[in-house]
Amino acid sequence: MSHIRLYSLILGCCYFMGMASLIASSAADDGKSEPKDFPKGSEKAVAAVRAALPKAQIDEVAEPKGFGGSGGKGTPLFWSVRVHTGAKRHVLSVSPEGVIIRLPIPIEIKDLPKPVADAVAKAAPGETVKGAEKQEMRATLRYVALDKASVQRYAIDMIKDGKTKRFFVSPDGKSVKAIEIAAEKKASKPAKEFDVPAKAAKAVAALKALYPDLAVLKITHEVFDDGTGDIEILTYEVEFVIKGIEREMVASPEGVIPHLWASVATKDLPKAVTDALDKAAPRTKIEKARAFEIRASLRFGALEKAKLYYTVQVAKDGKERTLKVKPTGDLIQKFEFRKKK
Description:
Layout: H1 3-17, H2 43-52, E1 57-62, E2 79-85, E3 88-94, E4 102-107, H3 114-123, E5 128-160, E6 163-169, E7 176-179, H4 201-210, E8 215-225, E9 231-242, E10 245-251, E11 259-263, H5 271-280, E12 285-316, E13 319-325
Antiparallel strand pairs: 1-2, 2-3, 4-5, 5-6, 5-12, 6-7, 8-9, 9-10, 11-12, 12-13
């Protein structure tokens, strides 16, 4: 996954979660009944909403369009649960496991913590406070290991007349692409062992379980903005040297490796793949085969303790805006990713 795709995915997630809002009104129901059937797989999400919002009526449960949806090909990242109480209608994002990703709780303005109230007064002098909510971020985005890895494509080095060419082949054998093999980047083992940060220890340990002799050269990370003002680490990108060759792989803070190239014995290649190779490169010998395995997927996992922040609606001269404030009184600004030069 490229940096740009990752950032777009995460920002899209935060935007959608920003649509969610808690039903607080005790107004009478509008008389419409709930749907008789909800989508298969949404049972836990529906139960979680009913438990958290007993006065709300569920109008619709659906896969989100775009980010978060499976496109009808599996389990979505979260369900969009549309609810209402009286005239108020809102959307909650709920994981298939039944975790409400962000739960807003209306509070009285007078009940705002003093650091929050002071921050609002300083940031919005002369503006009228219209309302406030305490936001409970109950889940975070992380990689979760799949029960079984899936192969996305094969990379097979074929040799003929002393020349080697690499073929990328889809598991069904319908897509075959040949490329010239680029020279591997050589590197020397560093004289001093890399000082691995404590937070990256599990990620590095997971890689060393695969390659015990690797020597770490550099560690960077991919981050996402969960809306609380704290930037979370999604994966660590580890650059290392093994047998004189420089490589890089990613692993999550929990030690989950999302994807990797795994060696495959020629006898274990699918028949569709070998048949495609026989057609594309007849009388050519397989020198090396690897499979690009997807070993984990992005899911929303419940936090042991919800992360809190406050949203406060203020208005002046007919114009309204919302301030986001940490419990400490620090204003939460929109996170901007730096553009790579």
